[in-house]
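ok so i was messing around last nite and threw this chain in just to see what happens. nothing serious, just curious
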Amino acid sequence: KGYAMEFAFEKIFALEEKFEYICVFDADNVVNEDFLFHMNNKINQGYRAVQGYLDSKNPADSWLTFSYSLWYWINNRLSQLSRGNLDLGCRLGGTGFAVDCELIKEYGWGATCLAEDTEFTLKLALNDIKVGWSHEAVVYDEKPTQMSTSMRQRKRWMQGLADVSSRYVKPLMKKSIEE
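result:
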């Protein structure tokens, strides 16, 4: 996905028409009709990257989809909303986010590992750019119903997180100690 996004950004930036922000979604996502309104409100507060509320399209399909949904509800409320309220900067969640085109041009996307959302979040953190949180901008993502599908997905993401960690932990630790 990261390479596809890199390719898409290059094509979009080469167009004659210029855009201020790009919203990123997965192909199977559904968004509330007021999603862009709420994202724009956060953008108008000065955020150059904003994450919307990640919810599940199918929480009642199985115990697994309910478990995923429960995790998202808890994470949205206790982590993302809290960090947003305290202006600590949030985490991009892979889908349902908006990013300033100039920000991508300035720092490059470069997030091409299997956890591109975390990679770009950490790149922003290293450059003192906070990700805003829009609790009202809801995007619905379909969760896997089968354990085998979930395990393949989780394995892929864990490989991506290990890759990101190997490249970003040291610079982030150094930055935190120095600052």
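not much to say yet. DSSP finds six helices and five strands in the chain.
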